[in-house]
Amino acid sequence: MASRELSLQAGEREVGRFFANHVQGRQGQGYGGRLFITNERLVFIPVALSEANGGAQAEWDLRDVQAAEVAPRFSGPGIGSLRRRLRVRMNSGDVEHFVVWRPRWLAAFLNRLLHDVAGSDR
Fold first, then answer.
1. Which of 10, 16, 33, 116 is deepest in the core (most CB within 10 A)?
2. pTM for this predicted structure
3. In the chain, where are the structural domains located?
């Protein structure tokens, strides 16, 4: 069984944790868990029941994230969603969707962090 808590890497600090459903797979299945945001990564850790039903832990380096935005209703994988979701666009062209409370606020928070990360790489 996987740990339900985030393990920080050397020099890394947690800047936020949020309840989220991560949309995974072509059918757009949402799995409940927590989205952890650090100064270096985004990490989704599913709750035990979601993991037992196929939800997987996933992580992304912030340097690989292009932008965060709010996905309109009925867009995204599967049949879409009645709710607006956080959409995270990667430099590779991949897109991740998360059902979160206050997606506009979280997108703005993440974009400010991405701006800070980009500025520190110079």
1. 33
2. 0.87
3. 14-120
